[in-house]
TrEMBL record:
This is Phosphate transport system permease protein. The gene is pstC. SUPFAM superfamilies: MetI-like. InterPro entries: MetI-like, MetI-like_sf, Phosphate_PstC, Phosphate_Transport_Permease. Residues 76-303 form the ABC transmembrane type-1 domain. It comes from Pseudonocardia charpentierae. It is found in: Cell membrane. It is a multi-pass membrane protein. Belongs to the binding-protein-dependent transport system permease family. CysTW subfamily.
Amino acid sequence: MTSTTEPATVQRPAKPVLQVGDRVFVNLARGAGILILIVLAGVAVFLIAEAFPAIVAPASELPEGHGLVAYIAPLVFGTVLSAAIALIVATPLAVAVALFITHFAPPRVAQTLGYLVDLLAAVPSIVYGLWGASVLGPASVGLSTWLNSWFGWLPFFAGPVSATGRTMLVAGLVLAVMILPIITAVSREVFRQTPKLHEEAALALGATRWEMIRMAVLPFGRSGVISGAMLGLGRALGETMAVAIVLSVSGAVTVNLISSSNPSTIAANIALQFPESSGLAVNVLIASGLVLFVITLLVNALARYIVNRRREFSGAN
């Protein structure tokens, strides 16, 4: 006798039947995601269409008779320089504040300090600009003089020192204060998610508080700190009014941070020049805005890539 065995049929689990409310929510969420893509694509199409006349126009018809690259390059340099200063100053300070809130401060002090740091993000940028030009700028003249006296051999502090304090250094410090809440908030939440068993194991092995943070907390939160710094960099790249008020613009391409000869930024230049521009000059400004749009998009895409690269962490909570 031969026995035949029929192959077992694999039954796939039935898809759950969504209720009316669930279907409405899913469709609304999907529509919101599609709407964001449409808006982003619309902004890109608008910038490209409006910048095209400036891209194909001869150099003689552009402002100051220069080519488009020669016009935008100093603005890109000033944008990147001011944002880099802000990032260098704000990132270590933000990490230190986040560590103090999560691992050192008493609960009430940590909660109050967290509220105060988050409150910095609610201050309008024009207020930061007024504070930088009226308070921080004059107060920085003494520091600039000291830097020029002791480190004048460096091109960053070669001088001559600006008498008003409206320098690239002050603009970078103002931007650092503005992006501090972003980096601190991201770093604080990442540090709080550090597996407790990792911290307790380090302390049980005889590590000090700082050694535990260095071996357990900082490695776990490295990707979060980097992504927060990239998000803060995106904010610094697109800041307009604070830089326009603080910076004394001369159009020069220089790394001197304490003199009155400063390159402008793309956003500040658009804000200052757009009201009085017409014709092809408007297209040139929009072309510079297109460059800023691409730079900001790349920075935020890099931040998202870093976040997704370490989405899951092997460890116990």
